Amino acid sequence: MTIKINRRRFLTIAFSSAAAAALGLYILTNSSGNGGGAKGRSVKDLLSSLGRNDLNPRYLAFLEWLSETSSPVSNSKIYVALMAESTGLAVQRIERDFYFVSGIDAKMDLSPYPVHVTKTLSALSVGTAIHDLIAVESFDQTLYWPYLADIGKLLERYKDYTFDKFRLDDFLKPSLELTCYYPPVGPKEERIPILLPFSAPTMIRFYRADLYEKLGRPPGKTWEEHIEDLKDLHDPTGGIFATAMQLGSDVGAVTEFNNLVFSYGGRLFEVSERKIVPVMDSAEVVEALETYSRMRAYADPASISYDWDAVANAMRRGRIATALLWQDFAWMMDDPERSMVVGKVRYQRNPAGPSGSFHQFVGDGLGLNRNSRNQLASWLWLQWATEVGTRIELMLDRRALSIPVRRSAFDEGLVKNTIERREYESVKVVKEVLDSDEVAYIPPMSKANQVMFVLARHIRSAWAGRDPRTVAKEMKEEVEALGPFTY
Predict the structure, then answer these.
(1) Which residues pair with 136 in a beta bridge?
(2) Can you give the pTM of this predicted structure?
């Protein structure tokens, strides 16, 4: 699930005047005009001269290695297709570090999710190598896997060009297991890693701490307590709705609802023996639908047209008191240029059902086009974008608060101390979720868009008042008609 500056809106990012001046200084002091480029100077000194100071030691160590390793491909040009979301935009802001150090010119193409999928799959399907590296959302693995290189084979082929601290098992387990292997089920020896974890969109609870203080109690721990909170917070005449929901987006409605499905012990699909079986007519899913529909009485009536962007906008404009949202939006809440509630929004795990507190996870991975003519240069960029030090820099970016996706990043003292700060509370909450493995997910499948359309239409009908049991039965029958779904 597929910010999310949007999760999904494209923002054009240009070099600042300071970055442009740094580039000019670099070209003047390096006659070739290329990176790869310490030329007797340490990477730290080079980047410092370009205005890049106070970089974490893990990042500098990788860049030193990159400077020494990249010379065979230092004049290469590669093309990277990312989604225009918080992590991709944060990578774009620091990508010049990679160029200055390696000399590899990475042309970055950031597009909103639908455009990204359409253009990358169109190019791949006719066998072209327009993009060397491509971001893939976990829902879409089935569409992309035939075109992506086996990460295991890349590790073997380029072992002399692989950072000595790179370890596949250092990635956070949900990010690796739910995002990067195809097929996503079956014996491990039969599963191929086709992606490296790039971002970790996870739904958590956003809430207005000041409004809960007026209530005199913390946010409820269960869905029943949460609904009591909504009842007491709801004040339309006073200009605030208790919550807003993502009913206007097919993916938004399904992923938001799936938090409840897992917490009530249900599943929308079961996966076994490479078969994806719809099971959304269970008693647990029916109960989740009943609870989800009860929230309508306290939701912004415009929720029927809202996607995640609209809900985030309602939150940052002080229109609602609480919502389930992708963590990617947390940075906006404290941005004085975008938010009317700076310092007032806090974060917690989602309310719990009978089976516990669960959080929708939609990982994005980054894969290498198997037809790329610049595989070594692309492999170096892929390592840089997912390396521990880089991930720390992306987390520290206050316009991203990106989840590091590497376990050892959370072992660093800098990260341990930083996530204890209020501004980084959302990162800490997601870490707790991913450590617990209490994540809700939807398996990748063919016809994912059609399936999401059917599921969302029925979820809306239950939200609007139709009998949840009837809705669940019809939902299953209609999804089954789209199948069978296999790997």
Answers:
(1) 365
(2) 0.90
